[in-house]
Write a structure and sequence with these properties.
four-stranded mixed β-sheet; single chain
Length: about 170
Amino acid sequence: PNPHYQYLPIDTRYFKDLELEILALFDDLDESLDGWLIKSENYQALNTILPKWKEKVQCIYIDPPYNTTNDEFVYQDVYRHSSWCTMMENRLQKARGLLSSLGMIFVSIDDNEQANLRKLMDFVFGADNFVASVAWWKRHGRNNNAKACSDVKDFVMWFRGSESLSEI
């Protein structure tokens, strides 16, 4: 194989007739991989990988629907707050089962559900495992369509598994 392309991902959905042949090229696929990228409905994916990866995952990043009531997305982004909280709690509980004691979880969110997400993560991971709410600038300058003030930042909620940061 060409070393220039040795880390190029292959989406096997475009090569159904070659999928088994590609997988057969690896003696031990799990040993050949240093991480997994799962593009799927995340609850289903979490249930699928939980038996194999229980308490072994070092880093989880989740970018859930922000519940913006914007229907322009290809995924549902309009929930009642209680439905959004239930959906998120289910996924956070599964993610907690995957996370090692030294692991970290990061969840992106905006102002719409930031307060609810923090309460959920405190409940699931424990308030003592909160590391930070990191704000990042999503837009520089103001939005001329804003009614009062421009929303220019989003957040990443950061929690650890259970070990203190000094032990990492």
